[in-house]
Design a protein that fits this description.
Blueprint (H helix, E strand, L loop, with lengths): L2 E5 L2 E3 L5 E8 L7 E7 L6 E7 L5 E3 L7 E6 L4 E6 L8 E13 L2 E9 L3 E5 L2
Parallel strand pairs: 2-11
Antiparallel strand pairs: 1-3, 3-8, 4-5, 4-9, 5-6, 7-8, 9-10, 9-11
Length: 125
């Protein structure tokens, strides 16, 4: 069993930055890929970024490549999403999840077993 809690969301102006944190408990991160996902009102959930802390593999959606960076700190059981050059269309509820990620065109495919409740990111002037 894995429990995931997100933090770091908020209101930011276009062009600004935010760092989201995902705190994991209940199991070591070594066993799972940890991914960040987002869902905007009226839209389907989108995989944003995913990382294997044991292998170092990372995946990104094409829409965030070059702007977002996913990283992990196994000692702290934390996974981070650094978001730069934010745009209004990045506005969404961002959730972290534990499971498996693998290559997919335009981003990555995934099958996640555990989900956090999410944190709201609003990009607006």
């Amino acid at each position: 069993q894995v429990q995931l809690v997100e933090s770091g969301g908020g209101l930011v102006q276009p062009g600004g930055s935010l760092r989201l944190s995902c705190a994991a408990s209940g199991s070591t991160l070594d066993y799972y890929y940890i991914g960040w996902f987002r869902q905007a009102p009226g839209k389907e959930r989108e995989g944003v970024a995913c990382i294997s802390s044991s292998e170092g593999d990372t995946y990104y959606a094409d829409s965030v490549k070059g702007r977002f960076t996913i990283s992990s700190d196994n000692a702290k059981s934390q996974v981070y999403l650094q978001m730069n050059s934010l745009r209004p269309d990045d506005t969404a509820v961002y959730s972290c999840a534990a499971g498996a990620c693998y290559f997919g065109y335009g981003g990555f495919n995934y099958g996640m077993d555990y989900w956090g409740k999410g944190t709201l990111v609003t990009v607006s002037s």
